Amino acid sequence: MDNKYKQIIGDVPTPDLTYKPSLARNISDRFLTLTSLVFALIAILPLILILSYVLVKGISQLNLDLFLSLPEPPGDDMDNAGGIGNAIQGTLIVTTIASLIAIPIGVGGGIFLAEYSKGDSFSQFIRFGTNVLSGVPSIITGVFIYGVIVSTKIIFGSNFSAIAGGMALSILMLPTIIKTTDEGLKLVSDDLRTGALGVGASKFVTITRITLPNAFTPIATGVVLAIARAAGETAPLIFTALFSFYWSSSIDSALNPIASLSVLIYNFALEPYEAQNQLAWAASFVLVAMILFINLLTRILGNLADSKTGQSNRK
Amino acid sequence: MNHTKNNSIINSPCISLENVTISYKNSPAVRNIYCEMPRGKVTAFIGPSGCGKSTVLRSINRMNDLIDGCSLTGRVLFEGVDLYAPEVDPVEVRRRIGMVFQQPNPFPKSVYENIAFGARINGYTGDMDELVEMSLKKAALWDECKDKLKESGCSLSGGQQQRLCIARTIAIEPEVILMDEPCSALDPISTLKIEETMHDLKKSYTIIIVTHNMQQAVRVSDMTAFYNAEKQSGGSGKLGYLVEYNETSKIFNSPSQKATQDYISGRFG
Amino acid sequence: MNRRESEIRYKLRKRTASERTLDNGFKNFSLGMASIVAILLFSILIVIFRGSIESIAKYGLSFLITSDWNPVDDAYGAFTAIYGTLITSIVALLIAVPLGVGTAIFITENIIPKNIRSILSVMVELLAAIPSVVLGLWAIFIMEPFLRPFLISINSFLGWLPIFNTTPVGPGVAPAIIILAIMILPIITSISRDSLNQVPNKLREGAYAIGASRWPTIFNIILPAAISGIAGGVLLALGRAMGETMAVTMIIGNSNNFSWSIFAPGNTIAAMLANQFGEADGNQVSSLMYAALILMILTLVVNVFAQLIVKRLRLKY
């Protein structure tokens, strides 16, 4: 008997500490733990299903032609829907236009919130407005740009255009970029700021030379994720950028309707023709691969940069 | 509970540590602890910071289970039962061995609910109002907050919060109360009140307290264990070990180890 | 070194006019950029309101409760779409909240090793990155055909209930609800996860130390402490669900005939906009703008409310 105290303490009962599986609390604990496991599995099931279908249905159609040729108008050729070359090109163009608009505004606005505002009611309102803007449905931004740009033909008399599409997308990107800039800058230690101001640097120099470079990783991560999200958006484009069956070959293309992967998927998914449906799957594969690649890459790079700066804090 | 009866059996251990080594992620933090803590007494763990005294304390009611990568070898016996035997339920352990933490951590509920919660999950069937009142009285908090029972536990002062945490631990009527530097976040007046509370509590409970305050150890404890730490060979962290364990008066008046002598006379730590 | 010498050595000590201009200019630039947010928000409201004036004047509030939508007769009422917006988003929420909060608990509590948990967590976030239109494509060709037999058997058993009383034949409100639930699941999960992670560990330890087991601790201590964030996340998800467009348009059937049944084809405001706005003219444009205004107000109210809840409850805690 390893219990050598038993005879000394005599009248102290040995406590029963064993796990009793049939106790109500243990049954309910096991049941609830199992439930949460099942919930977690259900939560990731759609991702697995969607990714595997997109992979299976899309990868079989991958060939060079897909990337280099134009889509065929539905009904023209029952067996061949063509390629998605101009849609890839269009997605890149429209997303670039959106980024060119949203990044300066978003980073500028974020700098104002983090560096210049002093928590007054104006900046509180802007922060609030940023959150509200991020909740505005994407289709509404499309309607808005349609009302302001497309129907008025305000930009060189063109109605549906790559520029209009880019503007609609930029409204979606803006809140994310402002928020990540604001939060990224707030993470920079105030010591750096006061240090720079203390040796007589102007606010401008302090921001552009000290705080912005130190907040580069979180801001860049946020911006890239916003771009990736915009690249997959459809609703703001369907009546701003519309669609096109041709390449965008000259600078004029910015003023004309333009194709995009997402609108191609939408249009062709609803066509009654098998060939067009297949092309929609192929386009989905390319779009999802692009977006997930960017997502994973920024996460990995962001983590790497975090662990580096965590140790040496750069400057 | 039959604590009063047990008090007659002087020095028979309530908790005993047998060759306990605790590791975080495979690197040991404290090693080879042997220590027997008597029933109905106050045992103090003292030592410089980083010597693992809190880690040892937390192993006694299996709080370390909640930390990823923490493992224990050796045996921790409670009334002769190995707490780390595979069939033991840590929840059962913690119902008999309660704990009060360094930072007061009242639940964001009313004062009343803070106490009633533990009692209820322990299956208390008696009069709840009576239990709340009795627990608050034992923790010397009743007079200060008998009119605030409906207010949030977080609205009390730091010292009151800590006594509320003691009260909610008493309410589950454990056999042992572990206290991890319960006064380190408090002002001297609150500290005094908590020490007074402890004097009353040791009539009915076995108490083990970690403290960095040697005067406190002298004031409240019957037994004292002095822990120290050495630089780990090869590793980056410190490795704690038990230097000396004896009656408090012996530790502070005639320690047998030089390290103990140096520590209590304030030469390091 | 006397004063004069140092003035000579540090030529830039006196700030030049151009430097000062740059400094002020930069501040004003950033102020201007920040103001664009406010300008945008107001102009969106104004543009949509102006666009809908004609329809508001013609149909007034009866627009909200009639369900005719007939370009030929020039009769418009948005009840079908409003009902569709509310029923899809609310039922999707009812499905996604338990799943999302449960998953968040599973990810944050110490149930399985940490590295598996973080993989789960990333997977849930990647689901949010999948474009809505791809989910729609998947819903049309994979999910809906797979679900239809189940929906048909629900209809045959519970068909006496008004919400199940039509036979599922393809696109409809029910598949739209499922796809919406999938889409808002990542929002609920990630916001709940963040709120749960912010609950101080000392509360968890406090509950365990008085002998609480895992789930009483979660229900009584952890969840109440995280409730503000979770509630805010749920409301944000509701806003997102009401405005979600592409996947819903592709699977809901776009029917303007009103039916209580979730197995019938239906419509939401967002789906109606996506489907009709490009080809509409005259009163239809104005009526679509009116519907857009309603959607805008609905999401605005939900979002503002979400932010207030998060702020109010955080202050209390």
Residues in helices of chain C, as a percent range: over 70%
Counted up, domains of chain B total 1
Question: How many runs of DSSP E, i.e. beta strands of chain B?
Answer: 10
Share of residues in helices of chain B: 25-40%
Lateral arrangement of strands in the main beta sheet of chain C? 1-2
State the CATH class of chain C. Mainly Alpha
- Specify which chain pair forms the largest interface: A-C, 90 and 87 residues
Strand content of chain B: 25-35%
Q: What's the CATH H-level superfamily name of chain C?
A: MetI-like
| Overall pLDDT level of chain B | 87
The CATH superfamily of chain B turns out to be P-loop containing nucleotide triphosphate hydrolases
Give the overall shape of chain B: globular
Name the CATH architecture of chain C: Orthogonal Bundle
Key attributes of the depicted protein:
heterotrimer; A: 315 residues; mainly alpha; MetI-like fold; 12 helices; 68% helix; disordered N terminus; C: 317 residues; two-stranded antiparallel ribbon; 11 helices; flat
Structure notes:
The complex is a heterotrimer of chains A (315), B (269) and C (317). Chain A has 315 residues and is mostly helical. Chain A has one domain: MetI-like (MetI-like fold), CATH 1.10.3720.10. Helix content of chain A is 68%, strand content 0%. Chain A has twelve helices and no strands. In chain A, α4 packs parallel to α7, α6 packs across α7 and α11 packs antiparallel against α12. The longest helix of chain A has 39 residues. Chain B has a single domain, classed as Rossmann fold, CATH 3.40.50. Chain C has a single domain, classed as MetI-like (MetI-like fold, Orthogonal Bundle), CATH 1.10.3720.10. In chain C, β1 and β2 form a beta hairpin. The chains are: A mainly alpha (315), B alpha/beta (269), C mainly alpha (317). Chains in contact: A-B, A-C, B-C. The interface between A and C is large, with 90 and 87 residues.
